[in-house]
Amino acid sequence: MPRAVVKRVLLASPRGYCAGVERAVETVEQALELYGPPVYVRKQIVHNLHVVRDLERRGAVFVDDEREAPEGTTLVLSAHGVAPAVYANAAARRLNAIDATCPLVTKVHVQARRYAAEGYTIVLIGHAGHEEVEGTTGEAPEAIVLVQSVDEAEALELPGAERIAYVTQTTLSVDETAEIIAVLKRRFPDIEAPRREDICYATSNRQRAVKQLLGAIDLLLVIGSANSSNSNRLVEVARAGGVAAYLIEDETEIDEAWLDGRETVGVTSGASAPERLVQRVCEWFRRRGIEDIQPFGAMLEDVAFKLPVELRRAASSAA
Predict the structure, then answer these.
(1) E-strand spans in 104-186?
(2) Are 223 and 29 within 8 A, CB to CB?
(3) Residue 234 phi, psi (nearest 5)
């Protein structure tokens, strides 16, 4: 077998945390400071095991269902959004519910409600079982039909639907989603499109950064958890471009056999992966004598979201 000949590591830009993830993580941290532990969190606040475990050490308690939080306690709702029934359940248990839903996901929920109120059948492009899809579907379950692929779009039948619109999950592959939308527009020429693209800026930017990186690397390592949709899409983008790519939680999952015959390795991270994991991967390479580690590209993101209003009010009262 060829021996490892890695000479350099290139770091994609942008990578890592997006504004919605920063807001969600800070929401839990601020809630712990304001109310003290335990603070309950419905589902993973973001899809990254390192982030979840760190918050658990600080006193966050993660639950699968809002009804698992004791009555009258503080509950943070994850960045992926929830169905209206979750808010109703939280109110019935007198929970101090803090909504950390990413504002870009909220935008999709608002669109879905508007389309449903206007009598549209809504095609939701997304992945079955993903929390964001479950939350969006919950906004108008009788009006929404899920489509996951080009083949499903080709086979879709909507008998009796007079008005049709589509919305999408925010963390999808830009290219694959464009293919699905093209099929829908061909088959349903009058289909209504969102006023603005639903795939979020961070997902698009990270995929674009990977595409720009592909011509300069032999291998891509994507740092992110297995249940992170946007991280998995980065792996797919690289493989579609002919470059081997692997998803890793952190440096402990790197298989040195992947490096055999590789000269330049690219590293990126999903929107819910903290930068400290990138630095740990860089240190892993340095321990193996690879000192040429440098950024590739210089796309800057200046998006920022305010903390949830419930937290801002509580912080103001406590001041």
Answers:
(1) 121-125, 144-147, 164-168
(2) no
(3) -65, -40
Helix-strand-coil split of the chain, %, nearest 5: 45, 20, 40
Find out whether 237 and 207 touch, Cβ atoms under 8 Å: yes
**Tens-binned pLDDT, residue by residue, of the chain (319 aa):** 445 589 999 999 999 999 999 999 999 999 999 999 999 999 999 999 999 999 999 999 999 999 999 999 999 999 999 999 999 999 999 999 999 999 999 999 999 999 999 999 999 999 999 999 999 999 999 999 999 999 999 999 999 899 999 999 999 999 999 999 999 999 999 999 998 888 899 999 999 999 999 999 999 999 999 999 999 999 999 999 999 999 999 999 999 999 999 999 999 999 999 999 999 999 999 999 999 999 998 778 888 999 999 899 888 877 6
Which among 109, 110, 97 is positioned nearest to 42, based on CA atoms? 97
Residues designated as active site: 132
- Asked if 39 and 28 count as a contact pair (C-beta separation under 8 A), the reply is yes
Place of tokens 């209504």: 192
173's CB contacts (< 8 A; 6+ apart) are: 207, 233, 236, 237
Residue of 301, 298, 296 whose CA lies nearest to 215: 296
DSSP 69: S
| CATH numbers and ranges of domains, the chain | 8-17+201-296 (3.40.1010.20), 19-101 (3.40.50.11270), 104-187 (3.40.1010.20)
Going by C-beta distance under 8 Å and a sequence separation of 6 or more, which residues neighbour residue 257?
1
3-class secondary-structure state, position 32: helix
- Contact criterion met (CB below 8 Å) for 82 and 165: no
